Predict the 3D structure of the following.
Amino acid sequence: MKQKVIVIGGGIIGTSVAYYLSKKDVEVTLFEAKDIAAGTTSSCDRAIMLQSKKPGPTLELALQSAKMYTTLELELEADLEYQKGGGMILIENEHELNVMTEMVKQQNQAGLNVSIINGGHAREINPLLSKNIIASTWWSEDAEINPMSTAFAFVKAAQRRNAKIKLNDEVQALLIEKNRVVGIKANKENYYADNIVVCTGVWTKKVLETIEIDVPIIPRKGEILVTERLPRVLDCNILSGSYIAAKLQKGNDNPYGIGLAIGQTKSGSLLIGGSREFVGFDHSTNSKVIREIAKRAIQVFPFLKHVHLIRTFSGFRPFTPDNLPILSEVPEVAGLFIAAGHEGDGIALAPITGKLMAEMICEQKTDFEMKPFSIERFTKNNC
Amino acid sequence: MNKVIVCRCEGVYFDEIVNAINDGATSVQGIKRRCRVGMGYCQGRTCQPVIRDLLISMVGSNSIEQIQRTQSPIRPVLLRDL
């Protein structure tokens, strides 16, 4: 009999896991409480940016994932709006220059060919940049993708390999027998499987609470501005030096965790982010935060003064205390796996997450060192 | 009928909306994510009732959310005027 696996969650992580499982000799069913890409995947930006990652396990995952993205459109037979336009982190003063010089040194050691270019060179790449930008980092390998299209394409490709997708089907309970997961209950019906993978991002804590397993993933809200459609003004990802500081949680003078991140969608809208705040599941956007992001965007791109804002949105990033995702079997419950907690790296890490989880579940091993992503790193500290 | 534009801001045709519902969308949000309907300059203020009616006629009226979430700003505003 074929191995049966149930994936819980239809975001970019769950759909990726379902797709890579469907490539193995496995019967896959994905359960999604609402709809494909209905949570974090439809409320984030589109960057696959490597130079914003801290050198270490995340960057190693991201490098492999980025390589997978280069051929993913062919593999999934879908337009994912993939574009490798490069990326820059803008430098506005001497202090940022020192910080970024140090970071670039570390990245070069980690094998990332990032360089620091002067303001003039940065304006050659992006002529609309402000004269106040004194320098910038540059890496030609940073890319972008449409996260929603990617999740839908994973689903379609998995379905072609006979995976079943159940929408509006919320999992109410995990079925456990003798320390082993044997299935789930959804819509008052029991579904049995050999393995369950929980890919529910910020909602993972809630799912695992039902069997008294604590997962330290909490929502971190990010707000993003959407402009009217513009002609092509930007081919690369733009971050500000303060974005990196906010990501690494340095300094207390930035309560909303504001750091600039700008990209242009295929339709022509600019996505301008963002913020990082711990406010539970409060979905509202804060006019103070929106105004501050707009102000900073105008500082680096003065032409934005004359551009209309048409929408704002917020999304919840699945934050873990050590900024690493959980890609792990649950030691107390045989057969149960978690792939969640990617915070702002979920888009970049989706393909490699799906591939590694499929290997862990079907072959019980991977070529990648998975220890940094084990859930045991949290439980052991509590002893 | 299939080539009637329903969402002018994003240029979305009637049949693209029908396809989105056939693909499993059961909410205005779900249709939006599949074909960009209501994502443009007017933010679905014109086309949303049409989409809602179509959704109800195709999947029936039930407890699933059928209304697009209101997102600020209420009308487009220049970034410098915020």
Summary: Chain A has a mean pLDDT of 94. Residues 3-46+148-215+322-382 of chain A form a domain with the FAD/NAD(P)-binding domain fold (CATH 3.50.50.60). The CA atoms of residues 96 and 102 of chain A lie 10 Å apart. The two ends of chain A are 40 Å apart (CA to CA).
